[in-house]
Write a structure and sequence with these properties.
The protein has helices spanning 2-5, 28-40, 47-61, 82-103, 156-177, 200-220, 225-228, 242-247, 278-283, 300-310, 330-344, 371-388, 433-451; strands spanning 66-71, 107-112, 125-128, 131-134, 234-238, 249-251, 258-260, 265-268, 290-294, 319-323, 349-352, 359-361, 367-369, 392-398. It is an alpha/beta fold. It has a single domain, classed as TIM Barrel. The chain has an eight-stranded parallel barrel with strand order 1-2-5-8-9-10-11-14, surrounded by four helices. Strands 3-4 form a two-stranded antiparallel ribbon. A two-stranded antiparallel sheet has the order 6-7. β10, α11 and β11 (349-352) form a beta-alpha-beta unit. Bound molecules: phosphoenolpyruvate and cobalt (II) ion (CO).
Length: 453
């Protein structure tokens, strides 16, 4: 079965298919050179780690764990810097601790980081000073600088992306190995922002309880908690620039199949999941867990065929179905999809991305999202899954550990005028540090209501 379905697949068989969202590189010779060099460089992750993640995701699909997938919309090469990475690791760890504490089950952490450098865009070109230039497609493809030359797809960026991802991952691994000191001082988590929030007391209780638990474990063990258990951290990105992903797709000794060794998990975007096109062709051949973004426009039938094509052996922990309908479309779209997936017996991990269907332009033209809308879609997702008897085992969020002003709302009540203060994203608006912790708390609350009460 596997052999027939995987027939004619190779890491580069996608080159024979039509492709969306990846413009042609004008300099073919340079592309070839960069691609060949990238193929020779050492892997960023190992097949063992990828298999371990798949096992953990299988636990999620069995309702024994929860997956938190979160990070930047687009990472940038210029922000491969210590404070940015430390803040991201910190916010991912703290949000995961909130979930673990509140839900009482393991949380699998998958960052949108160390490779999230390529972006799909709704328009291929934009006009700047009367001139038509390529749209920015992420640092892996071209430069954000708005001039014709900088926007030409540049193959050298494939190598720079690999190096920047490697530097990021190296530092993330070191921070995670140290157990990240912040775990010992939850009382120093910056909580003042929660003071006006109706959940402040719950929040404060939780922090106190985590502090007590950390002290308790330290007291009964002769090693500090940070040293007794190293925190696991996995990486993911959208498999969009297939030159980058396929150059790092390899066979490994003593295991069948091909692994994308640039990240533990990759996902297919909502705009590139046509069944007979390049991105599906590439992804059907790799062993990594695969996320599928699903939102309008889509059909249930097409989605089933996509899952089947990407997971022909019905492997558990292989597919994370990330729905991103938008708060107004979720009621109409999600129930039928859940029923169909159940009927087919596909063992997927269900995830809710309440970000991408809820983007709008503020009156001052900033692309933004409203915390309340994000919350509304997240709550609907839990309610619908609960009503259908299925398990919503994951959320997918765009967030940052920095104090940005990109999404309106939340406990601090950021308004549209406030977006101007610190709007930094290269692409979609992210929850800032405080909004992220608040959202984690609210996710845990919904999960508990759905699966514990
Ligand atoms: C993203 O995750 O940043 C993204 C572009 O998502 P989607 O493909 O769901 O629009
Ligand atoms: Co995004």
């Amino acid at each position: 079965m596997e052999d027939t379905l995987k027939n004619n697949w190779s890491p580069v068989s996608w080159l024979e298919k039509p492709i969306q969202q990846l413009p042609e590189y004008p300099d073919k010779k340079k592309l070839d050179e960069s691609f060949e060099e990238l193929k020779t460089l050492p892997p960023l992750v190992t097949s063992w780690e990828i298999e371990a993640l798949k096992e953990k995701l299988a636990q999620v699909s069995q309702r024994k764990a929860f997956l938190l997938q979160a990070g930047d919309c687009a990472e940038s090469f210029s922000l491969t810097r210590s404070p940015k990475i430390v803040n991201m690791v910190k916010v991912l760890l703290q949000t995961s601790f909130i979930l673990i504490h509140e839900m009482g089950i393991p949380v699998v952490r998958v960052g949108r980081m160390a490779g999230q450098y390529a972006k799909p865009r709704s328009k291929p070109f934009e006009t700047v000073n009367g001139e038509q230039i390529h749209n920015y497609r992420g640092d892996l493809i071209n430069s954000v600088e708005p001039n014709k030359e900088s926007r030409i797809p540049d193959p050298q960026r494939l190598l720079e992306g690999y190096h920047k991802a490697g530097l990021t991952l190296n530092f993330v691994r070191a921070l995670a190995d140290e157990g990240f000191a912040d775990l010992h001082h939850p009382e120093q988590w910056e909580l003042d922002f929660m003071r006006n929030n109706e959940y402040y007391k719950d929040y404060e209780d939780m922090v106190r309880s985590i502090t007590r638990a950390v002290k308790f474990i330290d007291a009964i063990s002769d090693k500090r908690i940070a040293n007794t258990q190293k925190v696991d951290f996995y990486t993911s990105h959208e498999a969009l620039n297939l030159y980058y992903d396929s150059a790092q797709t390899r066979k490994v000794p003593r295991k069948p199949g091909f692994y994308n060794l640039s990240a533990h998990m990759v996902w297919i975007g909502n705009r590139t999941r046509a069944l007979d096109e390049a991105h599906v062709e590439y992804l059907r051949g790799i062993e990594n867990p695969i996320g599928i973004k699903l939102g309008p426009p889509f059909t249930v039938d097409e989605s089933l065929r996509l899952i089947e094509k990407l997971n022909p052996n019905n492997e558990e922990g292989k597919i994370v179905l990330i729905t991103r309908f938008g708060k107004t479309n979720i009621e109409e779209g999600l129930p039928d999809l859940i029923r169909a997936v159940k009927r087919e017996g596909f063992p997927v991990v269900w995830s809710s991305d309440p970000m991408h269907g809820n983007t709008f332009s503020a009156s001052n033209n900033y692309k933004t999202r409203n915390f309340e809308h994000i919350l509304e879609e997240m709550k609907s997702a839990f309610a619908i899954h609960r009503a259908e008897g299925s398990y919503l085992g994951s959320v997918h969020l765009e967030l940052t550990g920095d104090n940005v002003t990109e999404c309106v709302g939340g406990a601090q009540g950021l308004d549209e005028a406030g977006l101007d203060l610190n709007y930094e994203t290269f692409c979609d608006p992210r929850l800032n540090y405080e909004q992220s912790l608040e959202m984690a708390f609210l996710v845990a609350k919904e999960w508990k209501q759905s699966y514990l009460d």
